[in-house]
């Protein structure tokens, strides 16, 4: 007997884009913790966030653990955590984030 294989959705269909700003709290790093990076063998991902000061202008608000793919159209896969923070500081508010929920290991 053969089994019918279910066709799984590709992860790229789950990519979310949002534009966020954070007001007068200074840098993005004061509002959102960015973890991971190439030095840890991981994609950069979002840590704890101060959701009460963040405003999402377009799309859905990112969640804890979402993997960062792009910041204002700049791909950040393969960057170290320090380089990711440098890319974020380079842009003014609001910034566009492309994120994806991590899959099961």
Task: For this entry, give a set of tags.
globular; Pdz3 Domain; mainly beta; two-stranded antiparallel sheet; 1 helix; 105 residues
Number of discrete helical segments: 1
Whole-number tally of structural domains:
1
Rg, Å, rounded:
15 Å
Quickly name the level 1 CATH class.
Answer: Mainly Beta
**Outline type:** globular
CATH 2nd-level architecture: Roll
Major β-sheet strand ordering: 4-1-7-5-6
* Category by helix and strand content: mainly beta
Organism: Coregonus suidteri
Domain PDZ: 65-103
Protein name: PDZ domain-containing protein
InterPro entries: PDZ, PDZ_sf
Structural overview:
The protein has a single domain, classed as Pdz3 Domain, CATH 2.30.42.10. The model has no long low-confidence stretch (mean pLDDT 86). The strands form two sheets. A five-stranded antiparallel β-sheet has the order 4-1-7-5-6, with no helix packed on it. It has one helix at 81-90, and strands at residues 16-21, 32-35, 45-49, 55-58, 67-71, 74-75, 95-100. The protein contains one helix and seven strands; from the N terminus they run ββββββαβ. By secondary structure, it is mostly beta strands.
Task: Outline the secondary-structure elements.
Layout: E1 16-21, E2 32-35, E3 45-49, E4 55-58, E5 67-71, E6 74-75, H1 81-90, E7 95-100
Antiparallel strand pairs: 1-4, 1-7, 2-3, 5-6, 5-7
Protein name: PDZ domain-containing protein
Organism: Coregonus suidteri
GO biological process, one term: signal transduction
């Amino acid at each position: 007997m053969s089994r019918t294989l279910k066709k799984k959705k590709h992860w790229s269909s789950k990519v979310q884009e949002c534009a966020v700003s954070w007001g007068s709290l200074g840098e993005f790093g004061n509002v959102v913790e960015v973890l991971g990076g190439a030095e840890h063998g991981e994609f950069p991902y979002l840590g704890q966030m101060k959701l009460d000061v963040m405003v999402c202008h377009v799309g859905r608000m990112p969640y804890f653990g979402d993997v960062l793919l792009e910041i204002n159209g700049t791909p950040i896969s393969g960057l170290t955590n320090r380089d990711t923070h440098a890319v974020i500081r380079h842009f003014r508010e609001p910034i566009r984030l492309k994120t994806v929920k991590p899959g099961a290991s």
